[in-house]
Amino acid sequence: MKASQNFSSKNKHNKIFRFAASVLTTAALAGSINSVSANPIEKTTTQHIASTSIPLQQPKPTIAQSPSVTSHLQLAQISPWGLIPIVVVGGLVIFFPLFFGGLVVIGEREVGIVVKKFAISGRGLPAGRLIALDGEAGLQADTLAPGWHWGYWPWQYSVKKESVVVVPQGEIALLVAEDGAPIPPERIMGKIVECDNFQDARKFLSNGGEKGRQMGFLTAGTYRINTALFKVITVANATKQGMSPEHLRVYHVASDKVGIVTTLDGLPIPGGEIAGPIIPGHDNFQSGQRFIDGGGRRGLQEQILLSGSWNLNPWFVQVEQVPMTEIPIGYVGVVISFVGKAHEDVSGAAFTHGNLVNSGHKGVWVEPLYPGKHPINTRVMKIELVPTTNIVLNWSGRTERHNYDAKLGSLTVRSKDGFAFDLEVAQIIHVGALDAPKVISRVGAMQNLVDHVLEPTIGNYFRNSAQDYTVLDFLSARSERQAEAAEYIKTALRAYDVQAIDTLIGDIQPPATLMQTQTDRKIAEEQRKTFEVQQQAQTQRQQLVRETALADIQQDMVKSEQGVMIAELKAKADIQQEAVRSEQGVKIAELKASAKVKEMTGEAEAIRLRANAEAESLRLKSIAEAEAIRATGNAKAEAYRSGVEALGTQGYTAMQMMQIIGDRHVRLIPDVLVGGNNGSTNGLVDGLLSMILWNQTAKPGEVISPLQSQSTVTELETTPSNGNQSPVVVEFPLDGNFG
Known about the structure:
Elements: H1 2-50, H2 67-77, H3 80-101, E1 104-106, E2 110-116, E3 131-132, E4 138-144, E5 147-149, E6 157-163, E7 165-167, E8 173-177, H4 201-206, E9 212-218, E10 221-223, E11 230-233, E12 251-253, E13 257-263, H5 288-293, E14 299-305, E15 308-310, E16 317-323, E17 325-327, E18 331-337, E19 363-364, E20 372-374, E21 381-387, E22 391-395, E23 411-414, E24 420-430, H6 436-443, H7 446-466, H8 471-476, H9 478-494, E25 499-509, H10 512-552, H11 554-599, H12 601-647, H13 649-664, H14 682-696
Parallel strand pairs: 3-4
Antiparallel strand pairs: 1-5, 2-4, 2-6, 7-10, 8-9, 8-11, 12-15, 13-14, 13-16, 17-20, 18-19, 18-21, 22-24, 23-24, 24-25
Protein name: Band 7 domain-containing protein
Organism: Chlorogloeopsis fritschii PCC 6912
Domain Band: 326-542
């Protein structure tokens, strides 16, 4: 430190000496120039004034001439031989300050790199040093700024002019220090020290700057860098330094991506960890020194870079851009974090099949990610997508788009009767958004849920269930088996926080031999039905033939049937007509008989019998006559009985006969008398002849029919007289006309 102060005081004295020398040299140079050019100017002016005559009264115009113009006019009047002294004097004026005054002129866009050839004290640079801080011979830490600098005599100093470093917008510049303290073994880059953005080499070396690649870098701007100490790598010379120009541009992270950071310097990552923890205050890895001072770890980082532009040192940070994690509609993302705070289970005592942690901890996060885009570091976190819509899993040759059932095939089960057959099943499940972390914590992934839970659960159930039924029973009671399976599987999956929506039995493929038997039986049954149908068809065909034949004779049959029907109808009509007439006659007779009965009981009965006789005569004339006679006889007998009871037998008989004879004008002597005595039959012949003669002598226009003739009924009264019967003939007209 004392050496630095001594060097500073000496440097100040040298600067004062150089300033004084430069002032004296400038004054001498100005005086020589004035002495050289003064006489010609004065001479020329005197001659010009003397040769010009101007009236005193007139105003003299003032003409301003610039010194350069005047000098050019003066030089134009100097002869070539007169220029030699001027050139010699001018050369001496310039050479002496430069050589003996040590004048160095630095332009505005330059920086002077000073090399001291020897030191009066004879001190050299310490071992391992390249840049001199205390006036030692060699490359000097201090540079020359734009302007005039005195005292840098050519025999002691060599000044190299370098252009300033310009870093354009959108670029950075890296630096490599050629001198400084060695970098510690635990780091690979030099630390950042206060040195005015590497423009003050003395501060860099005095403050402990380290040689080699620097953690710090230059952003857009213009810098005066001591190129003897620092090698500056820009886009322009990146290729010569073995780097890609793209690495020296401002790093840009796209809007739909995240940058996964890997640092190349810092402390090693502790055992059991895969990434460095989040270190605050380093401005997204743009301040590497703050990252190192904060205990940052080299390697993969938990922190990510979001969309934007970042000034990053490519020797310190490597960035890999990956797309944001997108959670589609109908899904949630379960976060499995491999980094973070210590594991603290928050699943509760009821959940014994896994562990859940809060966000930011290591393990399965209890809160899932919902649909959208999320900036997730996929190198230290795993996102397991869990569908929240219904998932269909097929135990068949069909595969859904989610491909969870790609390895599932139809189930081979064995029935109670020993037959093995294939069974296709479709299972619909649903995982709730809040249940998704539990499912992933339990089984690890949705594919594991299918392979390790659903496949054995459903497969074993149907294998066990099929053993309780024959193949044909399983086929015939398919809906019942499906309902039983749905209820069982719903209960079984609920234990895994999975909802079983429905279980569907698809195609059932029984053994071919059994189906062949069933097919043959069915074919035989169908053939039997076919034969029955054919037989029925033949019967119908026979009936058709019969009906066709009948149709051919239908006209004759119709005529015959119509004739028969007409005859039957006529007979029925006649019968009905006769019946009506008979009924009407009966009714009339009954009415008449009733009237007669009122007048006289016997007469009433006679009228009724006569009415019945008339009615029967219309239908069966002979029966009607007999009934009429019987009715009349019964009536008369009744009348006789009544009369006999009243008058006695002989008295009533005599009265009745007298009444009849009187009322009816009955002839006591018949017109024809038929009699027979002693067994002779001539009486009948004589009677017949007498009747014929009677008819022949009848009045003109009078017709006597058997029903209308005055036939007589002979009542024989047998009286004992010596064994002989003497007929007593009484004529009763049948028509009731006793006139």
